[in-house]
Structures are given as structure tokens and as C-alpha cells.
Amino acid sequence: MEQQPLVLLVDDEEDLCTLMQMSLSRLGIKTHIAHRLEQAKRLLTDNRYDACLTDLNLPDGNGLQLVEWINQRFPSLPVAVLTAYGNMEIAIAALKAGAFDFVSKPINQKHLEQLLQKAFNQPIGNLNSKEESLEQKLLIGQSLPIQQLRITLNKIARSQAPVFITGESGTGKEVIANLVHRLSNRNEGPFIAINCGAIPTELMESELFGHKKGSFTGATQDKQGLIQSAHGGSLFLDEVAELPLSMQVKLLRAVQEKRIRPVGSDTEIDVDFRVISASHQDLEALVQQGRFRQDLFFRIHVMDLVLPPLRERGNDIILLAHHFIQKISHEWDIAPKQLTERAKNFLLSQYYPGNVRELRNIIERAITLSDDEKIDLPQLQSAPLRYPAASSSDEPEESTTLRSDILLASKKLPDEGLELYLENIEKDILMNALNLTHWNRTLAAKKLGMSFRSLRYRLKKFGLDTEEE
Predict the structure, then answer these.
(1) Distances (CA, A) of 81 to 78, 88, 163, 238, 414
(2) What is the pTM of this model?
(3) Between the CA atoms of 130, 133, 136 and 138, what dihedral angle is there, to the nearest 10 degrees?
(4) What residues contact 288, with CB distance under 8 A and at least 6 apart?
(5) Does a structural domain hold residue 323?
(6) Last residue of a domain, one of 120, 141, 168
(7) Helices (H), ranges, 289-410
(8) 232-261 pLDDT, tens digit each
(9) For residue 86, what pLDDT band results from cuts at 50, 70 and 90?
(10) Is the same domain home to 155 and 299?
(11) Domain limits for position 78
């Protein structure tokens, strides 16, 4: 016979405890009750609980003290905090102290049931093995910053608290957000990623909250919003700073109340999701400038994850380079290539303003340009402009100087961004070569000084390869 879950209720209101005890009993959950802080500590020492619910205000202390005490002695025990309705500052403080989640008074039976269900399903015993297997795929590196990141992830995985990820462009914010989701007890639910800067302002409310048929011109049928799609899982809001102020108000309500109203609907829909957000901008500065709501900032900025730039990760650069070589070679069904020592030293000397994303692009181009089993300096130096952190004695200065002259000659930074600017130049050169050779691709490849395979890859990349395989 399966053993009943055991929950400790800590509250000095006897009537409330009795009511909760009756409600949980109908769900097959056994409870113990404590009315004081010291009584709760004794029960926790003498019994093994599956979860703990504690009020903030106790006669001989407060719930935050109990959360910290439990976190030190029983770190695997999920503890949730009961808060007065709307007291979000205290709720956030409880989450930062180590609480699993919080529930507002008066207690909603449905929300209480969902909270305890997540607590019981929480990956406690098998977290480490799961973490290792996922990290091998998603979090590569042995540097101190990455080791510290793993420790923080281990703590955050047990919580329902909102997570805010910061880091330079290309450091892997979506990868880490996905890892937070997959290590949590929500891993069987959906992971919905939204780039807030990529949705047109006029479509944003419909995309996020959904709409009813006929609510506006073109709404020919009901549409489920992305927030509702994240029900039971995690919602990742990338570049959350790009949200207009009007949408920030609606998002705050959705995050705080876990309810949304589709465009054109008269009723609200309950949604259960964990919010993970990210930005490369300084949200605190945007709050001071009036460009980001302070209340939303505090609501999503509970647990911090700061991703280190690639240039601070030392030999992780080589580990990542090998990983990308293996991954790309598998995708292209070719034999993996080897980095020469000169190539490794060159990679370690770069500044990487585009971080991990830039490194992958460099490796992908180098594989394309390599005609043998090795990747050496010529293939790496043909990649787009980089900013060296230190010069290498093996590296000729010609390519860097040449690219610097091109940028200086333009007299201004490209409006479309450096990557797209360089891709447009590359595409124009390919088209010129093809036109000059009357689309004889073999001859075009010779004129461009590259292999036929390299040319074919680039044509496919820009959608110019019209011949069938």
C-alpha cells in the first residue's frame, strides 16, 4: 500500500489549520500542525515530511526564520510560505531565503493542490544524476564560473521562484533557461520560449494572451496565446526589456495572479507556469529611466543567474570548439576534424564579443573551408571580424588590418548589425562570381579560392542553390 504524503502546517490560526487539514485529508494527504516556531522545529526534527507550509507571522518568530532553518538542515524538503494577499515583497524575500513557493491567503484550494503536487514530484533523490546527464549536453565546461553556475542551478531547480538570466549576447541564455526547466519538477510540461523583441507591437497582446474569433479584423478563429501554451511548464521571456510599458502591465498581472484574458474574451483563464526571463540590458537602469516597470522588475527578478562571457572561461573555449566540431560533423555526416595547436592558441587569444554563438559560427566556417582532416589558422582567420584580446606570434596581421580598414572606410557602424552586414557582403560577392562565370559553380569556386563543397554550403545558406541533390 502506497504511503500517504505527510505535510507540516505551521500557523497560529487554529481554525485555518483545521480547515486546511480537512481539505488536504480529502486529497489523501496526512498533516501535522504546529502553532509556534519552536514546536515546528521539534516536529521537523522528529519526523520525515514531504512538504511544509508555514505562515509568515508566528508568536515566537516568523516564517522566514523557519525557511532558513529548514534550508540549512533539510535542504531537500520543499517549504512554501503563506502570505497575506498582495504582500509580494515578503513573498519574494521568502523565495530568496530558499522557499519552494508561496500561496496567498485566503487559500485557493486548487492552487494549494497544484503547489503540493509540484512539491511531491520535485526531483530530490535523482537530481544529481539528472543534472549531470543534462549538463553533458547543455552546459559544457570546467572553468570556475561554470562550476559556480552548476551549483546555483542545483538550488534553483528545486524552486518555483521566477528566474532572471543576465549575460552578454551569445552567452547561451536560452540554453540555460531550458536547462532550468529540464532540471525542475516541471520538466514534463512545455518549455515555451518567446523573443520579446521579435514580436511586432500591434500583434504582441494576441501572441502572448491569445484572442477570440472576431475580436479584431483578421481574427477568423480562436487562438491560444503563448502564455497559455506554457501551462504546466515554463515560460521563457528572452529580451524582456523590449516589452512596451502597456504590455508590461498585462504581463505583471499574468505572472502575479496566474490568470490571463484573451483579446475579445469576457472571462479569464487560469494558467500555471514558471516564468524565466532574460536580457542583456541593465533592467535596474531602465527602471530608473522609467522604461521598465519597477513592480514587474521585482516580480521577475527573484533568482539571479549571471552567465559569464566566453573570454572569462579559459580552456572551456577549446572544450566548446571540440563539441561544436563533433556536433556539426554529425549533422553534415562528415568525419570530425582536428584542431592544430596553432588553431587552439588562436582561439584562446580572441575576445569573442559574440561569445559562444560567435565561437560556433567560427568553427562552422572553419569546417566548411577545411579540405583535409585538420583545422588550422587559415580556416579560422577567414571567419568574420573578431577583436583579439592579445596578439599571437603565429597570426599574421594582414587579415585583421584588412577588415579593420573596411569598417573604417564605411565611416559608420552598419544599421543592420555586423553579422547581417557581413552576410550581405558575402552574398554579393557570391552573386558576382556566379554571374561572371555564367553560374558555372566549379569555375566560381576556383575564382573565389575555395573548394566546391565550401561554395555549395554557402549557396545553400543563402538559398541560392537551385539544383536538386
Answers:
(1) 10, 12, 18, 29, 51
(2) 0.64
(3) -50
(4) none
(5) yes
(6) 120
(7) 294-300, 316-332, 341-348, 355-369, 377-381, 398-410
(8) 999 999 999 999 999 999 999 999 888 999
(9) low
(10) yes
(11) 6-120
